[in-house]
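Quick start: what a row looks like.
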Amino acid sequence: MRHLYTFESREQPLASSDVFYGRLGRNAGWALAVVVGSLLLGTSGYMYFEGMPLIDALANASMILSGMGPLGPLYTTGGKLFASFYAIASGLLLFVIAGLMLLPVYHRILHRFHVDEEDAAPLPDVHRHSSKDRSA
């Protein structure tokens, strides 16, 4: 999984379009795997805690994962607790998936518009005043 965030350094030239699109595809594949894994977890949770048939559990897990909410009422305490934690985890997964998808894009933008420290004008140091400067 280390290859998800291994990019060229700022001393290296910008990666070719083929490498960039390969990174996008690879990260999209990992994002899809996260979604499928989450869907499997949610489906099995609804089947276990609520005793739902496969298609109903899949529909409910899909709706929670997409942020829409469950399709019908939940009847067991375990099912309600599971749905609560699954919904919170699904909300956080949105950020994980978005980060996976956008990581190559962010890196390419930062790499392309990077300003070397040597080229940048130095910032004034406001903390260099001596005690004589303060008394004047």
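That is the whole record. The longest helix spans residues 77-112. The CA atoms of residues 45 and 82 lie 7 Å apart.
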